[in-house]
Each structure stands twice: as C-alpha cells, then as structure tokens.
Amino acid sequence: xxxxxxxxxxxxxxxxxxxxxxxxxxxxxxxxxxxxxxxxxxxxxxxxxxxxxxxxxxxxxxxxxxxxxxxxxxxxxxxxxxxxxxxxxxxxxxxxxxxxxxxxxxxxxxxxxxxxxxxxxxxxxxxxxxxxxxxxxxxxxxxxx
Amino acid sequence: xxxxxxxxxxxxxxxxxxxxxxxxxxxxxxxxxxxxxxxxxxxxxxxxxxxxxxxxxxxxxxxxxxxxxxxxxxxxxxxxxxxxxxxxxxxxxxxxxxxxxxxxxxxxxxxxxxxxxxxxxxxxxxxxxxxxxxxxxxxxxxxxxxxxxxxxxxxxxxxxxxxxxxxxxxxxxxxxxxxxxxxxxxxxxxxxxxxxxxxxxxxxxxxxxxxxxxxxxxxxxxxxxxxx
Amino acid sequence: xxxxxxxxxxxxxxxxxxxxxxxxxxxxxxxxxxxxxxxxxxxxxxxxxxxxxxxxxxxxxxxxxxxxxxxxxxxxxxxxxxxxxxxxxxxxxxxxxxxxxxxxxxxxxxxxxxxxxxxxxxxxxxxxxxxxxxxxxxxxxxxxxxxxxxxxxxxxxxxxxxxxxxxxxxxxxxxxxxxxxxxxxxxxxxxxxxxxxxxxxxxxxxxxxxxxxxxxxxxxxxxxxxxxxxxxxxxxxxxxxxxxxxxxxxxxxxxxxxxxxxxxxxxxxxxxxxxxxxxxxxxxxxxxxxxxxxxxxxxxxxxxxxxxxxxxxxxxxxxxxxxxxxxxxxxxxxxxxxxxxxxxxxxxxxxxxxxxxxxxxxxxxxxxxxxxxxxxxxxxxxxxxxxxxxxxxxxxxxxxxxxxxxxxxxxxxxxxxxxxxxxxxxxxxxxxxxxxxxxxxxxxxxxxxxxxxxxxxxxxxxxxxxxxxxxxxxxxxxxxxxxxxxxxxxxxxxxxxxxxxxxxxxxxxxxxxxxxxxxxxxxxxxxxxxxxxxxxxxxxxxxxxxxxxxxxxxxxxxxxxxxxxxxxxxxxxxxxxxxxxxxxx
Lengths: 145, 228, 585
Ligand code: HEM
Ligand SMILES: [Cu+2]
Hints:
- The complex is a heterotrimer.
- By secondary structure, chain B is mainly α.
- Chain B has eight helices and no strands.
- Chain B has helices at 2-5, 23-58, 60-67, 72-98, 101-131, 152-188, 192-195, 199-223.
- The radius of gyration of chain C is 24 Å and the shape is globular.
- Helices cover 65% and strands 1% of the residues of chain C.
- Chain C is an all-alpha fold.
- A two-stranded antiparallel ribbon of chain C has the order 1-2.
- At the A-C interface, helix 4 and helix 5 of A face helix 8, helix 9 and helix 11 of C.
- Copper (II) ion binds next to helix 9 of chain C.
C-alpha cells in the first residue's frame, strides 16, 4: 500500500510457489558441482591459479543457484533483489584493500635498502620474505594473554 | 492464499501486526529486513574472506602444506549434508506456503538432523586437530608430522583462520539449530503466527541458506587448495 | 504540509481526549517502558542512556584537559592517562555519537515524518536498545575493571598482544553496540522503503529521512566489518588465534585497513544524521523551501557511497602503498564535494529567507561555520604531503572535534531544542536557550581552535607530558579554559530542559510554525502517532513566500504575546479550540 509500485511487483499474495522439481533439480546440480570442485582441485592445469579460479567460479555458480532458486530471489521483488546485490557489491569493493599489497612492490622511492633482491628502491622492506622455515623452537611461540 | 492475500482487510488477518496496513506490506517488509540482515552477514564473513585471501596469497606453499592435514572426506560429507539441509528447508518453505503442516514438520525435522550431524562431524574434525596439536598456541606443532613440512608459524596462521572461520560458521549453525527447533515446535503446536503466515518459515529458511552459502565457499577454500 | 485524513472512525474525539492519551501518559509503570515497542518511548530511553554515557565521556574529557594544563602533567600517571583518553574516545564514539542522532531522533521522528504508525519492527527496535545497554555495561565494566589503553582505534599488535588492560571485555561491549546499530539500521531501511504514508513519495520525504536512510545503509554495510575485526582481537587474546600477529606472518596493517574500512564510513554515520537535522532546521527557520532539494538528497547518498572509498587516508604513514595513498587522497578530495554541495545549499537557502534566530537556528548556523572549518582541515589532512606533517598531532584532534563536536554534537543540540516540545509537550525558556547556544559556540571555538595552532606547531596527540616543549602551554591553557565554558554550555540545557518538564508551559502541536507531518499530530503524539493515516499531498518544504512575509509582519506586531520567542501559537491554551491536526501555521 505504501510503496505501491514495489509491492505490486510482488504480485497478489506476495509470494510465488517454487516447483518441487525445481528445488530437487537444484540440489542435484549443487551436488554435481561439488563433485566437480573436488575433482578439479586435483587436476594439474600447469598453474595453480587456474585451479583457484575454477574453484571460485564453481563456488560462485553454486552460490548463485542457492540464492536464485533456494532463497527464491528468482521470484523476489526488485527491492529485495537490490538488497541482495548491495551486499555482494560492497563485499567486492572491500577487495580494494588488496590493492595496497599488490602495488607496494612498484614504489620507486629511493630507500636505504639498496641491496634488496629487486635492486632496492623502497623505503621500507616491502617484499614479503620468502616463506622461511624456522626450526621448531621456542622463539616460534609467543606469550599470550 | 485468500486469507493472507486480502489486501484491504485492515486488522482482519490474525498474523498482521498493528504497524502494517496489509499482509503484502508486512511480508515484503519482513523479507527485505531479513535480506538486509543477510547483507550484514555477507560483510561479516566477507571480512574474514579478505583476510584469508591476503594471507593465502602471501603464504601459498605453507598453507598448501598445512591444509593437507584437513580431512577432505569429512569436509565433503559435511558439504553434502548442508546442501541436503538447504534443500529440505526450501521444501519446508514451499510446504509452508501451501500450508501442508506435515510436510513442513518433516522437512524441518530432516534439516535439524542434518544440522546436528554437521556439527557432530565438525567436532570430530576439531578433536582430531586438537589431538594433533594443530590448535594455535604454545603447543602448536608439537607433532611436526601433521604440519606436512609447513613452516610452523605460517601454519599457525592458517589454523588461526581455519578455526576462526569454521568456528564462526559453526556458531551460525548452532544459532540455526535453535531457531529451526523453535520454529518446528511452533509448527508442531499449530501456532497461528507461523501456520497462517509463511513468512517466519521463509525467514528462517533464508538464514539457513546463508549458512549453507558460507560453507559453499569455505569448503573449497579451506579443504581443496591446489598445489602451488 | 496539508493532509486529508482517511476515515478511521476516530475523528470525533475532542482535543482533550487526545491529550489524555499521549504516548508518555498512556502507562507510566516501569514495566510498560521496559517492554514497550513504541518507537517514541524507545527514543526517549535512548536519550536518557546516551546522556549518561555522554556525561561519563565528558568527565574523562575534563580530566584530560586538566592534566594538560601543566607541561609536566598534573594528576594522572602516564598509564592512567592512556586509559582516560581511550575511555573518552570509546565512550564518545561508540556509545554516544554513533548512536545519538539515529537512535534518539531517528527513532522518534522517522515514523512520524513519513506518516507511519511505528517502525517496521518494533520489537527489534526494543532489542536494539537492550543490546546497546548490554554493550554499554560491558564497556563500562571493562573500563572500571582494568581499563583500556589502546585508544579507540585498538591498533594491533599492541591491543592484541601487549596491552595488559581489559581490552577483550570492552571489545565485546562494542560488538554488542555494533549489533544494536545494525538492528536500528535494518529497521530504518525497511521502514523508509515500506512504511511511507500514501502520497509520501521519495522526493517528498523530509531530508532528515534521506539522511537516516543513507546512514542506515552505511551502518549495515560497515558495522559488521569492524565487529568482526575487533572480534578477531578478542579471538587473539582469548582463544589464541593468531590473525594479525606479525611474528607469525600476520599483518597489522591489514587490521588498520579493516578498521578504517568501517571507521571512516563511521564518521559519516556520525555526520550524515547531523546533515539531515541541519536541512530541517535551516529550511524551517529561514522559512524557505530548501535550495536544491534533489542535490541535498543525492549528495547524502553520494557521501554514503564515496565514504566507503577513502579509508586509506587514515593510513598514509602506515606503510601503505603510496599508489594507493595517491588514490585515497584523490577520493578524499572528491568526498568533500558533496559535503560542500550541502553547505552551499544551506547557505543559499538562507539567502533572502525570513530568518528567525531561535535557539535551534543558532545551533544550525554555528554548524555551518564549524563544519566548514572541520571539513576544510580534513582536506589539509587528506593531501599526502601535509598529512605527513600533521598526522598524530593536535591538528587531527582539532579536525575531528570540529566535525564531530562542532558538527554532530551541535546538530544534536539543535535537534534536541527543536523537537523537545514535540517529544515532551513542554516549552523551555527560549531566551536562556539562545544565550546558551552562543555560549556553546564560543566555548567550542576557544577549546579547539588553539589545538589547530599547536598541532600545526607540532604538539603530538595522546601525550600528557610536554615538559620539553613548554611553549605549548598557553594553547593548552586556552583550550582548557574553553572546555570549561563548553562544559557549562552543555550542563545548562540539562537544567532548563528538565525544568521545562516540571513547570514549562504546554506546547501546541506546532510551536515553531513548522511544516512536516510530525508537526501535524499532537505534542506529545499519541501512541499510534496519527489518529488517521495521513495522505500527503505536497512536499515537505512547501513554504509560501508571500504568506511567510505576511506572517513575519504579523509576528512583529504580536511579539509580546508569544512565549519568549516562540511562534505566537506556540502555547497550547486549553481554552482556545485549537486544531492540532492539519496545523497550518
Ligand atoms: C570533508 C571530508 C573529510 C576529510 C577529507 C577528512 C580527512 C581526514 C583525514 C585525512 C584524517 C586522517 C588524519 C591522520 O590520521 O593523519 C582524518 C581524521 C579523522 N577524521 Fe576526518 N575528514 C573529513 C570529514 C570528517 C568527518 C565528517 C568526521 C566526523 C564526523 C571526521 C572524523 C575524523 C576522525 C574521528 C579522525 C581521527 C581518527 C583517528 O583517531 O585517528 N572527519 N580526517
Ligand atoms: Cu576518514
């Protein structure tokens, strides 16, 4: 009644029944995709990034299936859809944080660490040290609380 | 659905709250409210996924090695369980719309069983990790063979996030169990506010799907790392 | 704003019957308050509770100011000083400013302004108050039992590994407070979308509603991030999960990213509601349609959106990549544009308006000046080069106090004075209030302007001991003197407002001659807000210039009959058969 255009979009009664077969088919699809994920994680594509991308892609497809069919966004009002979208958009925005880490190595500032592997040039030690493997020892553990 | 869809029946409907004009308005308000809540949940878990992404890109090899101690069959079974429970909840919502009380009770029941089963398997996994000293802290890595050669400190970081993320997810599962059980009892007692109005059931369903959603991402990210 | 009532079978009740059953007098038992779903009562409960926390925050501020009057410190140990300024920051930000305007005025006014009977989820609303109280109690408990000494920013690894204070408990308290904000935000969003009265289209909404909407969006998107980030500190301290600990490969700068990803938007959580109030006050007391309604509305949304893209300007010296620093600096400048749009629109609204210098208006005018100073100094801080010089000095302290105290707190006071007759049904002494508003303005500037100067000279923030730089002392003395004036200006309203409750004259439905649905119902409103659902026919800032001019003349003639500067019709005279519905001024 209040926001007429939006509630009209909901249709009379405000909901739409999903077909049982739809739900069941969705379950089967999700199961199949899970199988593919497990399988794909063992395949050697030459570069593990490809595996990661595939895993994420499949997970996203699964997420969309759950959202679209199980959560009924397929039949939801535009308003609901807007809110579904907002969360994921801002979440993706947050990945901007990683831009910091991705661009640090390109800093041209002349620095004091001239003997760094990349020829020096950053004011602070920017590169992540190669994964060190310290021996098992007390100094790996920290006092807590 | 005549009784619920009666758009002009001010106060006729027993499930209508006083602040709303009609059921359409109330239903959409509740669903949008639930979705906005889920948006906050997305941001909540999203933060953890960002942390995960950064650290994983920093310590690919060590995390790969550390993750080998995870039990993929158990994780896989848990995934299946959650997918099934998501399905049954969806069916329960559908049945609630059709007012088929028995079906609702059955499906919610199966969901509950699945949820408890998930927690059971999860706790077995946790116990195993504790026994192998894979819980971060001074004792971490006392049995280096379970580290599979990963640097103890980076592995500790991995397990910190593992326990943090799956732990928070488990907390959500526990909350889900409580809510679903409550809903089940309401249906069982034929409480009018759930039997006349499918929206409470749908909201619980949405929450449970979200729990499933998080796991859909957690499983490949935690259990299925490719060798870098 | 004119409205035609829908038939609901209540139109026969007389004004007196209505008066008997307003939301305050319905039931005075404690139980009825603690279990209420009425948004107006919850707003009042919030008002009382945030005032309490504001008082505590103010006391800690007083301690800080006293300590700083001498270069060698006065009464506090260094460690205690750390705890006091942390307490000040945490109380003022998490338990006062983030909550204050949305939870008090948003709660009270949002349904009234859009013509709804209540918020969409009254019980959730009540729950948010309980969550807030639990959070506040935990925060206080933590502060009494061990204190916090990490500042309100909780930077790791200090807070997660080294601090010996009771950080975990306080963070859990903040976590609860965060959830209280989130529930409020969800409520407001759904209410704005779904509960508007017939005819209340988006572009007829009062700008305060727009502001509350944008604020809620920021709240629900930002708060979970800080909630989980701070919770990770608790995990680190209590469950030993090493998320940010550097010696295991964790990254403390990541914490700062996540913290500011919320906390910069959080400053907009604090200022956007103030913008909304500002639009209401300016439009009403300039008796003019707000200049560029659409611009003000959309700049609100633009700020909410852009606010999520500038968090890195708090980290220019935190070893953030300089490329990202450049981008953040640029976007920080961009975010100043919509803020400036608002300032210009308000100023343009004032132009050729029939300005009435009432106490809310004085607050509104001082807001314009103070926020402009605060925002412009934000640009100093947002440019990479000057930031390196100014960061962690008193310049920052002055900057954010100009925006948060000069901005948000001033707007809060303005709103309190403006809507007090609506909330309580009583008129306070306007002349006293006017002088007090001036006092706040003077005290505020005396407190914080010297801080710009000494910050520019190099006085670092969070120090209580400047023995080797005694040249800062005069500024600190000025600042402390100003703080005393400001404190006076904040205590006096407590007295005259409370006094008005006891024996202030009764207010009519519309003591300011304002437009807007909230002024069409009785003061104080009935529990269901409106006796009939209003239908909105025209937009809210619909001031007729000719009529306004005539009324201004009439007011001059009538001046002595008004109650100390209110509108002539401000007093609710029981004899006169005034109509408090459809109240044309
Ligand atoms: C015109 C837009 C604004 C700009 C460009 C701006 C810029 C900045 C910058 C660059 C800093 C970081 C200084 C540093 O740490 O080196 C800062 C700090 C701060 N600003 Fe603003 N600001 C703006 C508006 C606001 C508003 C509206 C508020 C609050 C209502 C606010 C509250 C704060 C606070 C609380 C801090 C200090 C945080 C801390 O404790 O370190 N700012 N501002
Ligand atoms: Cu900022």
